[in-house]
Amino acid sequence: MSKHLNRRRLLAATVLGGATTMLSRPSLAQNSLRGTGSVIVHFGGGTMGDAQRIAYSEPFERETGIRVIHQAGVTAGVQRAAILAGAPKHDVANISGGSMAAFEQDNLLLPIDYGFWNERDRAGYDIVPAARLYVPAMLYSMVIAFDAQRYANRSPQSWADVWNARDFPGRRTLAAGANAADGASYEIALLADGVKPEDLYPIDWERALRSLDRIRPEVTKWWANGAESVQLQVDRQATIGSAWNGRIDGANDQGARIGKNWNQGILQWAGWAIPRGVANAENAQKYIAFMSRPEPQARFSEIITYGPTNSLAFNHIPADRAALLPTAPAVKDLQIVQNYTFWNAVDSTGQTGLRRAISEWERWVASRR
Amino acid sequence: MVQGAGQSVEIQGLSKRFGDVVALDRVSLTVRPGEFMALLGPSGSGKTTILMAVAGFEQADTGAIRIGGRAIDRLPPHKRDIGVVFQRYALFPHMTVAENLAYSLRRRGIAAAETARRVEEALALVKMEGYGARGVDQLSGGQQQRVAIARALIFRPAVLLMDEPMSALDKKLREHMQMELRLLHRELGATIILVTHDQEEALSMADRVALLHEGRLRQMGTPAELYRAPADAFVAGFIGRNNFLPIEAGPPLRLRGCDGDLVGVLAEDSAAPRPGDVLAIRPEHMALLPPEVPGGEPCRVLETAFGGARQTVLVEAAHHRITVEAAVSDHLWQPGQAASLHFNPRTGRIFPAPGPQ
Amino acid sequence: MTVATRTDHGRAAMLLPVLLLLALGYLGPLGMVAWTSLRRAGQTSLAAYAEILAQPVFLDIFLRTLTTAGIVTLFCTAIGYPFAYLVATRARSWAGLVMALVAMPYLTSILIRSYAWVAILGGGGLVNRALMALGLIEDPLRLVFNSFGSYVGMVQVLLPMMVLPLYAAMRRIDPTLLRAGASLGGGPASVFATVFLPLSMPGLAAGAALVFLSALGFYITPALLGAPGDYMLAQAIEVRVTTLAEFDVAAALSWMLFAMVAMLLLFLRRWIVPLGEEQPTARPSRVRAVASTAAIARLVQRAGDRLAPLAGPLLWIHGMLVLTFLLAPMVVVVLIAFSSAPYLTFPPPSYSWRWFVAFFRDTNWLQAGWFSLWVSTAAAVTTLAIGTPFAFALARGCFAGRRLLWLLAVSPMILPHIVIGLGLFFTFVALGLNGHPVSFWIAYVVTGLPYVVIVLVAALGRFDRDMERAATSLGAAPLTVFRTVTLPLLAASFATAFLFAFLSGFDDLIIGLFLSSPRGTTLAIRMWEDIRLEISPKTAVVGALQLAVLLVVLGARGLSGWVGQLRRQRTSS
User: Does position C184 have pLDDT exceeding 80, yes or no?
Assistant: First the structure.
């Protein structure tokens, strides 16, 4: 997964990583995480995997003597089934914010042991707090993505602009509604229809779908996964749409010219958690504690533009890099943190928001084929 | 190729059902060593089932089969040492002619040199020298049949079974191959069981014929016996051709609607006529003479067919339609002509009226 | 009577391995899924079923899934039949190569394959660019991200399932029968309609069954190439497992699909299940019935005979178009594999080996590749080993319940893999096999079995048993008969069955995700892990390498065949 542009950054990150490790060694303020055995951790693959390996796993192994086994990630459903069956896939699982509540409700997770943490770090989780059963792992944002060349003079500033085909002609791509919370298309549709961010929740499904009706003729493809959202823009199959900021930066690192606008971005997160029934619970606690530190988080964000969850990490990130991150102070407030409580709460019809989003979508595509 | 003397095949009380259908009903017959036996019958008569049972491809429900006096019922088919020639030859298309011939020898662990020698010998036997390297699909139908016969004989089986081996050949080639097979049989002395539905083939080739119908053995004997003294109306009708004429009820017994004298017509060993019986008389056992010749039954020619030395003539006499084989002299019968029909003495046979066959 | 019981024992021994496997690797897991579908909040209830029936949208999704599978089957028949006919009757010397090329679409990851279609059919894709350059159109045509694109993608992947069994059946049609037909006064079209078509029916039935059942489980291709309306039941089930973790509703949906398809198959079993009615001489009876229903065929025969001289050229043109259709995406994939660009783009700006280097440097991928290779091979070998006697017992035996056994063995194709994966996972955890490579092996035997059974039962249905009887009478023991006669004569069918069984394991992602562990991670999982976030040319490298391996194997076979031919010529001259 090495690319010319990225290689330099990787190299820089490694050197920087070495330097900070050396700097941090004498400071005994850090809790000792030394241990034995191994820990099986979720592994993202691709650039994400590079970032995780370089920023977290390798320094963790050096510092603690615990061997890290990277294991490919699985979908939330598989993860859940595995925990229910008593055989979790990972000691350290990565669960999207939208699914976390369901894991919490069904009591599938072990409490995080903050005894391994440095006191100041927990307070650093100021955007999404570190909770009893999980720790936010990374922050990312579903933002307006557009062809930077085509809209060089006047670029879309809001989701309403994305819906405005007269002033911003070109084919659209948005997440398919079956992606539910992760795709954020319902929030985006409401924002485009003029709903104020503070009135977004509870989501007015009818209004959201009516809004989607209006943009439908302009949408060339409702994307099914993150890779597709950006690939469609790289190939100019679509010139305006939604995409995750990290995917846009990843493509631009490799030479694409995709513009992004943070305004009205939907800020999302994924969390680290320790499933019930894991074999190496203590090592998992230590790995999570290690990842909570600002230095490795800073290194992680050097390699991939996902925001650190511990804001103290910004002390270690160069300003030009920090500007690219969704949690950078300058752009943080332009975005709306997605309300996972709403998405997992049961509404008057007895369904969670996730479930409702999927059934509404199924009905919508069937009725208006 | 030196052939060991053929062995006897004894079949005793063989029965087989497929679901509700009785394929074989207590059939017993014995094939003598070196004999050429034809199993003859219409389709569904059970002849193929017997063949399958002897070869071991089909298990009979009851009954026993002995070859050379040895019971083989519990012997798996590949240990029975029986050669089989299949209807469509079943030559292996993925092998050459030589490989087809060598197949049984390789199974018996015969050395390569000996195998090669015997393959050449077998090819010579069926006059196919030089064809060893050919693919099976490069052969004509007749050539394929020769190879199939050679393949079935090369391992010197005690018995050779042939399942309608001529049915895929055209008439000329069939007659030629029938002759060659007879020669081969005489040369080798093998016991041969031939399954056929073609009575001409059975009569012309076999030493003896077993006639089957609906799973039962109806008659077994030499071709001449079956022709001359059929055991029942079915045999009489199946072997050769026959006219069946109803006998009029009440004494004196006569052909219904005819004036002729019946008694003189009957063969010496024929049953005595009873009411409701039929008289069977073959077309070749009648003569068609000009209408003025006395002592015959007056009739009229309906249709004729020319056949070289003989002319087949369909006549109507006293409301019966009768087929006659008339000798061709200088006179050819024409439809519409009047004639006088004469029965040859001591040629007719009386049978109970046959069923619907 | 001892004889009868002996054959019964023999049949039981032939059926038993498959039945044991199905009990362990299929029925047990499905029982667990069925139980799951009846459990809600710790209580037994029919709530999941009630919920589904209360929502009319599910009926719509069910019908759309069945219709889509039906349409895809029709397309595959219409395209595949003339193609198989061409290869089997007029291009026999090229058959091996062509059949291997036909199987190509299987050898690349579904995501990269779909991307290739976008590159070909998209707004700025090859087709539109060519049409615009020729001045035929002014604005690009919409060829993808609608139902057309969805059908194109599905037909391309499923066409091999139609063509390979058809070809195997047509190869066994004795050309002398056609000559016999012609000698009886039939024109080319009448001979085709009255002789060739009926004799090829078992292959057609097997192909249609394979295509239809596979199409029922599709959702990634429609999701990537279709419109949002091309939403298949498997996707509804998938999203309920992965996003909502509503295992009961997912299981209930699967069972309803299963019941619906099973009823359909039972109703149509006389046509679909290629098992003859009665034993020894049953060959033509059913075939004749089919032939007599082909009354329409007879109506067009006379016209057909007149057009017959055109048939040859038309067949060749059709054949070339089909090959282009099948291979164009492969060409795109190979070109992408050699791309110098850091991301996926077509046509590549320039060419390089960088993605091959990246692949071979990545030990994770290499390890996963080896794991996939050996576990899929082991599973395919096992499937063939136990599926062959099973298929023989079904095709040759005449016993009650054969059709039900056929349906049972084929039914893993009907159920979405996500449900099988769920059930298998629970079972393996209960058995202490969680994460063990053996669990992959069992799973892939179960998913490979339908292909082996469908292909082999169809092949045996048209097999001339006199070949085996001849070998037996010549002194060959049963296993020798199988080795020296049955196997070589049915080589094409066995190879097809093996290939499908192998690929069903090698291609699997969904079950693998359930079974994955540090001891067992397949290449498909590694690719998925990578392309969830970005599609890089590295996945194309895997496809290109598989193509290369296939071509090497083919080349070696062609060479050995050529050498053999030379030797034969020398000995005969």
Answer: no
Amino acid sitting at position A313: A
pLDDT tens-digit profile of B257-266? 455 567 678 8
Cα–Cα distance, A357 to A350 (Å, whole number): 13
**What's the first-to-final CA gap in chain B, in angstroms?**
45
Residue C95 is encoded by which pair of tokens?
A: 């058959």
State the Cα–Cα distance between residues B65 and B82, nearest whole angstrom. 13
Which of A157, A162, A159 is closest to A239 using CA atoms? A162
Q: Each residue of A210-257: pLDDT tens digit?
A: 999 999 999 999 998 888 899 899 988 899 999 999 889 888 988 889
Containing A275, the helix (H) or strand (E) segment is strand A258-275
Q: What are residue C96's phi and psi, to 5 degrees?
A: -55, -50
- Alpha carbon distance A360, A186 (integer Å): 10
CB-CB under 8 Å, C341 with A255:
yes
Peptide bond into C347 cis (omega under 30): yes
Measured between beta carbons, which residues in chain C are less than 8 angstroms from residue B109? none
ipTM: 0.85
Which SS3 state, helix, strand or coil, does residue B276 take?
coil
| Chain A residue whose CA is closest to C236 | A362
Query: Rounded mean pLDDT of A305-324?
Result: 91
Neighbours of A291 (CB within 10 A): 24
For the segment C473-521, what is each residue's pLDDT rounded down to a tens digit? 999 999 999 999 999 888 878 888 898 899 889 888 889 988 998 888 8
Integer Cα distance of C233 and C215 in angstroms: 11
Beta carbon pairs, B and C, within 8 Å: 78
Is the pLDDT assigned to residue A6 strictly greater than 60? no
The pLDDT assigned to C484 comes to 93
C338 touches chain A (CB under 8 A): no
- Provide, rounded to the nearest whole percent, the portion of chain C with pLDDT above 90: 29
Q: C51 touching A, CB under 8 A?
A: no
What CA–CA distances, in Å, run from A365 to A223, B286, C60, C256? Answer: 14, 89, 11, 22
Closest chain C residue to the Cα of B19, Cα to Cα: C278
The minimum CA-CA distance between C447 and chain A, rounded to whole Å, is 19
Chains C and B share 3 or more Cβ pairs within 8 Å: yes
DSSP structure class, residue A265: E
Distance of residue A64 Cα from the nearest chain C Cα, in angstroms:
21
Q: Are A67 and A40 in contact (CB under 8 A)?
A: no
Contacting partners of chain B (3+ CB pairs under 8 A): C
| C222/C147 Cα distance (integer angstroms) | 8
Distance in angstroms (rounded) separating the CA atoms of residues C482 and C384: 14
Question: Minimal Cα–Cα distance from C406 to chain B, Å?
Answer: 22
Closest CA to A45 of C376, C112, C223, C368: C368
Residue C115, beta-bridge partner list? none
Contact across the interface for B133 and C475, Cβ inside 8 Å: no
Which of A3, A360, A362, A364 should be substituted to probe chain C, the one whose Cβ sees the most C Cβ atoms within 10 Å?
A362
> CA-to-CA distance for B153 and B81, rounded, in angstroms?
10
Using CA atoms of C143, C148, C152, C153 in order, give the dihedral in degrees to the nearest 10.
90
Q: With beta carbons less than 8 A apart as the criterion, state whether A242 and A145 touch.
A: yes
C-alpha triplet B132, B133, B137: angle, nearest 5°: 95
> Residues B16-50, buried b or exposed e (16+ Cβ, 10 A)?
beeeeebbbbebebebeebbbbbbbbeebbbbbbb
**Dist CA B125 CA A32 (whole Å):** 95
CA distances from C383 to B346, C78, C456, C550 (A): 73, 31, 12, 21
A72, containing H or E segment: strand A67-72
